[in-house]
Specification:
With about 200 residues, this protein is of the alpha+beta class. Helix content is about 50%, strand content about 20%. It has three domains: about 5-65, OB fold (Dihydrolipoamide Acetyltransferase, E2P), CATH 2.40.50; about 65-140, 5' to 3' exonuclease, C-terminal subdomain (DNA polymerase, domain 1, Orthogonal Bundle), CATH 1.10.150.20; about 145-200, Helicase, Ruva Protein, domain 3 (Orthogonal Bundle), CATH 1.10.8. It has helices spanning about 30-35, 65-75, 85-90, 95-105, 105-110, 120-135, 145-160, 165-180, 185-200, and strands at about 5-10, 15-20, 25-30, 45-55, 55-65. Strands 1-2-3-5-4 form a five-stranded mixed β-barrel.
């Protein structure tokens, strides 16, 4: 059972990556939240792995946080949720927002994720609320201010990627821009500052 892969990022796309480990290329499927954290191709990379065994082969799913991998595994235990939908869920919502939605049994929020209907959202909330609580401690969950900042950065990152910037480059610019702004940070001025940084 493969639990972690460390190697060189040979190729990446929003659906999967290829990681070169001593000349062997491993195809690893990733959610968008992990894709945005990947380095440039040719750079070292390390991912936590869930190994999914099927009748016709083995698929590897990679995550930049062990908590993401653990929740992915829990999602697979929910009736009607397979690997494809589990990846879609982790692509459509940040991990802290997902934890909050499960804690509050926010069916409406989960149902907005592509591929997740209201009935599936209800099953996920019902079956995972207590299980997910055991994986985390209160200190691991971001306060409301932190969640809002994460959402702001995600929206800004998506906008820059749509403009043609590479996710890794855009994220570095956004991190620098958010530190410079500190207070009064809005999507508009965050993007303006990030674009200035990218232009230098």
């Amino acid at each position: 059972m493969i639990a972690r892969i460390c190697g060189i990022l040979f190729n990446k796309s929003p659906q999967f990556t290829i990681i070169d480990v001593n000349g062997v290329g491993y195809q690893v499927f990733v959610p968008l939240t992990t894709y945005y954290e990947l380095p440039q191709e040719g750079e070292p990379v390390s991912l936590y792995i869930y190994t999914h065994v099927k009748d016709d082969g083995i698929n590897l799913f990679g995550f930049h946080l062990p908590l993401q991998r653990d929740i992915f595994q829990l999602l697979l235990g929910v009736s009607g949720v397979g690997p494809k939908l589990a990846i879609s869920i982790l692509s459509g919502i940040e991990i802290n927002e997902l934890l909050l939605a499960l804690a509050k049994r926010d069916v409406k929020r989960l149902a907005t994720i592509p591929g997740v209907g209201e009935k599936t959202a209800e099953r996920i909330c019902l079956e995972l609320k207590k299980k997910v609580a055991k994986l985390t401690t209160p200190g691991e969950q971001l306060p409301a201010e932190g969640r809002e900042k994460d959402k702001l950065l995600d929206d800004a990152l998506s906008a820059l990627v749509n403009l043609g910037y590479k996710p890794h480059t855009a994220k570095k610019a956004l991190d620098k821009a958010s530190l410079e702004l500190k207070t009064g940070c809005t999507l508009d001025n965050l993007l303006k500052n990030a674009l200035k940084i990218l232009a230098t």
